[in-house]
Amino acid sequence: MPDNEPQSEPASPGNSSNVFDKTLMHSSDTLPSAESAHKATGQEWIGRTIGKYKVISVLGVGGMGVVLKARDEAIERDVAVKVLMRNMAEDTVALGRFLSEARAAGKINHPNVVTVYEIAQDGPTHYIALELVASGSASEELESKGPYSVAEATRITIEACNGLAAAHRAGLIHRDIKPGNLLLAEDRTVKVADFGLARRTAADSMQMTQLGQLVGTPYFMSPEQCESSNVDHRSDIYSMGATYYSLLVGRNPYADSTSVMNVMFAHCRSEPPNPRDISEHIPEACAAVIRHAMAKKPDDRYQSAAEMGQDLQAILAAISGVNVVLPSQS
């Protein structure tokens, strides 16, 4: 999220203020004060052992726990270990969500999805051992280097679509697709990460929220998420379109909005953002993909991540942007 992240305000356009107000309470982003507390707790793990893993360093913090770099000395492999905060482990809802993330991701075996090695408990400590993706996220690269080239932004999004398609085939909806959840391996392979908001599509699905609650990151939320309506896999496609926009231009969709509520209102009412308004060198075909993916009505979007990936492949094959024919438009 950018430094000038929108601040909350008491009212929003239209009659959606009650829904939009709740986002500040349920955004997946962590407030700085909580982050500082988590870092202090995370440092305490360095040099200790969790299960069979010897902790080396703290990789990051999240709303529910810390992510540690650790060593599986039995097979000489470095892993990422996500540890649930002990005070949250006593919260049955938080614990259920933490374990649901692991089970959801563990159902998927795909090169573009972070691999789950183990779900375990060491005394009172609940943890997940994951594939270590050490090169950082697309969000971090955007912050340090600015927007990607059209070719690289398109390639990253294609691989993310491949991973997302695998999740959808497993009956899972990610619900928080954004540049920060696209990790980049040393060979530049994209890994979709953080299924903490994932839910199953079946009627007996794991419920991450109660009625009226919102999950996800406002800049990349689908209209149905913003309105706290039922979502399906096409909500992820909307977020993927918003992510593609961000990779191309180096800024979040609707970044000029002055509050979180206005960002969400824009997702529901405004036209999809056009990357060519930022840079005329971006091909019109890229803008067409974003318009299609970010259509307000799910029925008007790509109906699968694979379908979106096909259009992106066409762009990559003719990256000059001249006479590109998108399969979905042919």
Tell me what the structure shows.
The radius of gyration is 20 Å and the shape is globular. Helix 9 packs antiparallel against helix 11 (284-293). The protein has helices at residues 17-21, 23-26, 32-43, 86-89, 92-106, 138-145, 150-169, 223-226, 233-249, 260-269, 284-293, 305-317; strands at residues 49-50, 53-61, 65-72, 77-84, 116-122, 125-131, 172-173, 182-184, 190-192, 199-200. The longest helix has 20 residues, at 150-169. The strands form three sheets. Strands 1-2-3-4-6-5 form a six-stranded antiparallel sheet. With 330 residues, the chain is an alpha+beta fold. The protein is built from twelve helices and ten strands.
Helix and strand content put the structural class at: alpha+beta
Q: State the separation between the terminal residues, measured CA to CA.
A: 36 Å
**Percentage of residues assigned to helices:** 25-40%
Mean pLDDT: 81
Low-confidence stretches: 1-39, 200-215
Give me the Rg, rounded: 20 Å
Give keywords.
single chain, 330 residues, alpha+beta, 6-stranded antiparallel sheet, two-stranded antiparallel sheet, globular, disordered N terminus
Which secondary structure elements does this structure contain, and how are they paired or packed?
Layout (H helix, E strand, L loop, with lengths): L16 H5 L1 H4 L5 H12 L5 E2 L2 E9 L3 E8 L4 E8 L1 H4 L2 H15 L9 E7 L2 E7 L6 H8 L4 H20 L2 E2 L8 E3 L5 E3 L6 E2 L22 H4 L6 H17 L10 H10 L14 H10 L11 H13 L13
Antiparallel strand pairs: 1-2, 2-3, 3-4, 4-6, 5-6, 7-10, 8-9
Helix pairs in contact: 7-9, 7-12, 9-11, 11-12
